Amino acid sequence: MNITASRILKYALFAFAVLAALIVLFINRNLASLADLIYPGSLLWAHGSLLAVEAVAFFWFWRGVFGGREHLLHADDDSPEGRAAFARELVRRVRTNPHVLEADLVPSGPEDKERIDQCLALLNKKADAEIEQNARRVFLATALSQNGKLDALIVFISLCRLVWRISAIYNQRPHPREILSLYWAVVTTTFLALSLEELDITTEIGVGFGQALHAMAPAGLTASIPFAGKALQTVTAAAIDGTANCYLALRAGIITRNAYAYAFAEKRPSRAAVFREAGGILLSMSTSLMDKLGVGVADALTGAVRTAQNKTVRASKGLVKTIGVGLGMKSRETDQG
């Protein structure tokens, strides 16, 4: 995390702490006054008891957040010392990991490289399944909603949930500093490029437009057909939006997985390698995703047609009834005349 972001975060935390302290003191004052009304003379005792309980709770929270064990922090400098400390702590936590315990692959220690590799392979497989499942949900949700603000909210919540669930596969009950470090590492690697070489424009554009061209081809051929052209253009827009968001989810998931999976490697995969892997997974998923999108659109069109038919039938019945009533009234008028 750079110096500016760290300083802003410290100021924000300090302001939040001051505000929280003022709120707590205000609540204490009201509770102590209420106790003094019920039991006269108990103002100081009530105030002191509340402060003592809050001091114990604060000490417990401070010890849990800032004290004790070593942390799984994703350092920006990626120094050998930082990687060694990260790998050492990861091994310690892997030994109590429920997935590892269930598979009976608990390593004897940091020197048991074979078991450690087997453990990481098992956890990587579970992380890959989580990444693909989340990417499919993002694709279908954003493709079918076709709502810009709602799509942005869906993607944001899905990415936050994805990073949390993948990190929980490797690291149960993470420390708050570890969570902050992981989210910052994912954000900087996924969304912020430090140079044009890291951005890899060719890969970025190639994957997105490759999928978009496949989706746009049918719409271009049938654009002149009144109903089919409009429907396929809608499907095309849905496919492009869903593909872009799915690709973003894959990238974020792969970066989160790599933060743990390559803890013992001398060098983590580059951004270009991450983009290529995300593009490969997207290509392998494209057929099934388009099939599901087609089924969803077909169901929606069928429902729309059925609704239109029902409205037409109800309107026809109403018209017939109105005509019948009118003819009956006319017939009675004729008989009376």
TrEMBL record:
Keywords: Membrane, Transmembrane, Transmembrane helix. GO terms for cellular component: membrane. It comes from the Bacteria. It is a multi-pass membrane protein. The chain crosses the membrane at residues 44-62. It is found in: Membrane. It holds the Pfam family DUF697. InterPro entries: DUF697 (IPR021147). This is TIGR01620 family protein.
